[in-house]
Specification:
Elements (H helix, E strand, L loop, with lengths): L13 H7 L40 H14 L3 E5 L2 H9 L7 E5 L4 H11 L5 E5 L4 H7 L4 E7 L11 H10 L3 E5 L4 H4 L9 E5 L13 E5 L2 H14 L5 H11 L2 H20 L4 E5 L9 H7 L6 E6 L3 H10 L4 E2 L9 E3 L11 H7 L5 E5 L5 H13 L2
Parallel strand pairs: 2-3, 2-4, 4-5, 5-6, 10-11
Antiparallel strand pairs: 1-7, 6-7, 8-9, 9-12, 11-12
Helix pairs in contact: 1-2, 2-9, 3-4, 10-14
Bound molecules: ligand P1T.
C-alpha cells in the first residue's frame, strides 16, 4: 500500500485512516508508532531557523500526528487539540467579544452550560438556550449580534437528535458560525462538517480515546480563517495536551471503528431489554423506533452509538437504590470507554444546571444514563436485571 500523505489520505476508508492518517513511520529510526516527543523545546540551528518546531506549547510532532489523524476522520482540512473538551469550547468562545450573542440548544452537557453561563456571561457575552428541534423557534432567536450557534447531537443526556443540515443552513444564511459537539457519535457515526457545520468538536475523553484514561478535546474545521484564529488562541492561551495524551488518543483512534460497532450492538441489546422491563417507564435510544427522532437519526448518522437514557418507575429513592446495586456497570461520570458506565444526570453530570431548567427539559430524579461498553451484552443485562429486582 502506498503510504499516506496529505495528498492521498482521503482515498482510504475510515478504519485505514484511523490507523494511518498523519502517522507515517518516523523518518530517523523507522519507528512504526509515532514517538511520544516528550520535550518542551527544540534545538535551532541559528536564531529562527528550526525544523518546524520551536516550543512545545506552539507545536509538538506527536500532537501534529494526532491532529492530522482527526482532521482526516472528520473530513476536515485541519484540527486543533486541547487539554480537555471544555478547553476546546473555551478556545472557540475566545473568538467572540463582549456584546456578542450565542444561540445554544437547551440540552447540553452541564459543563458546557456552566462555562457559558458562569464564565462567559460575566465577560459580557449573552446566551439563549432553546429547543433546537423547533426550527422556526431557532430561526426567530437570531439577533443582529448573534455570532455563534452551538449544538450537541444527540444531546446529553436526553439524546434528542437535532437536524444538523437544517440548523446549520439557517446559521449560514444568517452568517453565523455553527459548532457541532460530536462527542456522542464520534467521528465514526456522524460527519457534521459534511452536513454544513463550520466547526466540529469532541471531548476525546469519551469515544475518540475510548479507554477512560485521558482527558482531552479537539476541534476540526475546513474554514482556514477560523482555524488560524483558534490556532492563535491554542498557542496564546496554552491549554494544550501533553505528548503522552496525544499518543494515547491516537492509539485509541486505531480501534474507533471496531469499538463503535460493538458499543452500538450492545446498546441495542440493552435498550431492547430495558424497553421490555416492567420497572422502566421509558427508554431513550435513537436506534429504537419509539425514539421521536428515529427517522432523522437514520438519515443523519451512520449508526446510533452506545448511549442510552431511561426513566425508572419511581423517584429519587428508587433510582438511588438501583444505582447502588449495579456491580458490572460502574457508577461514574463520563462515557465512551470500553467499560460500561452508569450515571445519574441530576446529581452528577448535570447538577450545575438549575433545577427549574432541568425539570422543564426532562432531566428528572428518575433519569438514568448508560454508556454501554464493549463487554458481553448478556453480562450487562444480567447486572441490570439483578439491580432492578432490588427496587
Ligand atoms: O470533560 P471534558 O473533556 O472537558 O469534555 C466536556 C464535554 C463536552 N461535550 C460533551 C458532549 C460532553 O459529554 C463533555 C463531558 N461530559 C461528561 C463528563 C459526561 O459525563 O457527560
Amino acid at each position: 500500500m502506498k503510504k499516506m500523505d496529505s495528498e492521498n489520505v482521503n482515498q482510504f476508508g475510515f478504519g485505514t485512516r484511523a490507523i494511518h492518517a498523519g502517522q507515517a513511520p518516523e523518518p530517523v529510526t523507522g519507528a512504526v508508532m509515532v514517538p511520544i516527543f516528550q520535550t518542551s523545546t527544540f534545538a535551532q540551528e541559528s536564531p529562527g531557523k528550526n525544523k518546524g518546531y520551536e516550543y512545545a506549547r506552539t507545536g509538538n510532532p506527536t500532537r501534529t500526528a494526532y491532529q492530522d489523524c482527526v482532521a482526516s476522520l472528520e473530513g476536515a482540512k485541519s484540527a486543533l487539540a486541547f487539554s480537555s473538551g471544555l478547553a476546546t469550547t473555551d478556545a472557540i468562545l475566545h473568538t467572540l467579544k463582549s456584546g456578542d450573542h450565542v444561540l445554544c440548544c437547551d440540552d447540553v452537557y452541564g459543563g458546557t452550560f456552566r462555562i457559558f453561563d458562569k464564565v462567559y456571561r460575566k465577560l459580557g457575552l449573552d446566551f439563549t438556550f432553546l429547543d433546537f428541534s423547533d426550527l422556526k423557534q431557532v430561526e426567530a432567536a437570531f439577533r443582529p449580534n448573534t455570532r455563534l450557534l452551538w449544538m450537541e447531537t444527540p444531546t446529553n443526556p436526553l439524546l434528542k437528535v437535532l437536524d444538523i443540515e437544517a440548523i446549520t443552513a439557517i446559521a449560514r444564511r444568517k452568517k453565523v458560525v455553527s459548532v457541532v459537539d460530536n462527542t456522542f457519535m464520534s467521528s465514526y457515526f456522524q460527519k457534521p462538517l459534511s452536513l454544513g457545520a463550520d466547526l466540529v468538536i469532541h471531548s476525546v475523553t469519551k469515544y475518540m480515546n475510548g479507554h477512560s484514561d485521558v482527558v482531552g478535546g479537539i476541534l476540526a474545521t475546513s474554514n482556514s480563517e477560523l482555524y488560524e484564529q483558534i490556532k492563535f488562541f491554542q498557542n496564546a492561551v496554552g491549554a494544550v495536551p501533553g505528548p503522552m495524551d496525544c499518543f494515547l488518543v491516537m492509539r485509541g483512534l486505531k480501534t474507533l471503528h471496531l469499538r463503535m460497532e460493538q458499543h452500538q450492538k450492545n446498546a441495542f441489546e440493552v435498550a431492547h431489554f430495558l424497553e421490555g422491563h416492567s420497572k422502566i417507564e421509558k427508554v431513550i435510544y435513537p436506534g429504537l423506533e419509539s425514539h421521536p427522532d428515529h427517522a432523522l437519526a437514520r438519515r443523519q448518522m451512520s449508526g446510533f452509538g452506545g448511549m442510552i437514557s431511561f426513566y425508572l418507575k419511581g423517584g429519587l429513592a428508587e433510582t438511588r437504590r438501583f444505582l447502588e446495586q449495579v456491580s458490572l456497570f460502574t457508577l461514574a461520570e463520563s462515557l465512551g470507554g470500553v467499560e460500561s458506565l452508569i450515571g445519574h444526570p441530576v446529581t452528577m453530570t448535570h447538577a450545575s444546571i438549575p433545577v427549574e431548567t432541568r425539570e422543564k427539559i426532562g432531566i428528572r430524579d428518575n433519569l438514568v444514563r448508560i454508556s454501554t461498553g464493549v463487554e458481553d451484552a448478556q453480562d450487562l443485562i444480567a447486572d441490570l436485571t439483578q439491580a432492578l429486582k432490588k427496587i
